[in-house]
Design goal:
about 130 residues; Zincin-like; 6 strands
């Protein structure tokens, strides 16, 4: 059931975020992680979202929406992360140490909340 919920939600979110109109391929992997999830830019037009199964269904959906927002940021060339620096909307910057101060994270957290609310409306996750 977990995989089918993630599959359905990812297709819905891809449309909501406009990922379905962009070239490229996104794979989603459910695997043990030290965090809730991450988004990886593997190669030109190839991306991967990894999700930890050690979350409630509602939390994994929020993580999915958050990480797909990062994929959208990568795919539209708004975000390019390096080890210590990032290019965010064309501006090179040092990556802030505080996760919540990173502009791409601020956007992803807001998107996660908005999408989760919209997706959850009238569902068992509300």
């Amino acid at each position: 059931m977990f995989r089918s919920v993630v599959h359905a939600a990812s297709r819905w979110a891809a449309t909501e975020l406009g990922l379905d109109t962009l070239p490229g391929q996104v794979t989603i992997k459910i695997c043990p992680l030290d965090n809730y999830g991450d988004a990886l830019w593997l190669d030109e037009g190839k991306y991967r979202v990894r999700l930890s199964p050690q979350q409630s269904v509602k939390d994994v959906l929020g993580t999915l929406f958050h990480e797909l927002t990062h994929i959208h940021q990568y795919a539209t060339d708004r975000l390019d992360l390096g080890f210590k620096q990032a290019v965010w909307e064309g501006e090179t910057m040092q990556i802030p140490k505080t996760h919540s101060k990173r502009p791409w994270e601020i956007e992803a957290f807001a998107s996660e909340k908005k999408l989760l609310k919209k997706y959850s409306k009238g569902s068992i996750f509300a």
